[in-house]
Amino acid sequence: MPEVPQTIEGWLPCLKLPEYLALIPSGKIMPLGSPVIWTDGDDNQLTTEEYIKKHGVDPQIVWDAKKEYLKRMGGGVHLG
Which of 21, 40, 61, 70 has the smallest number of CB atoms closer than 10 Å to its CB? Predict the structure, then answer.
């Protein structure tokens, strides 16, 4: 059996999240008179166009799906 990490530094490489989680928006900023800014799972702030270019998905669709999921599953479920 492999040795179990005993420190934070030892665990960090083990806890890498699946790549698809980075594309789930963690935030949406709607400044007046400016384009929407999305925060992705890697904490990058991107316009809708930048988000689509980087992740290949419209963040609004993912955002709406996330909201629907939370509505169905209850407020205690957090996706990041």
Answer: 61
DSSP 18-76: PGGGGGS-SEEE--TTS--EEE-TT--EEEHHHHHHHHSS-HHHHHHHHHHHHHHH-TT
Residue 75's pLDDT is 64
Rounded Cα gap, residues 12 and 77, in angstroms = 24
Task: Give domain status of residue 28, yes or no.
Answer: yes
Q: How many domains does the chain have?
A: 1
CB 41 within 8 A of CB 17: yes
Please write the tens of the pLDDT for every residue from 13-30.
776 767 777 788 999 999
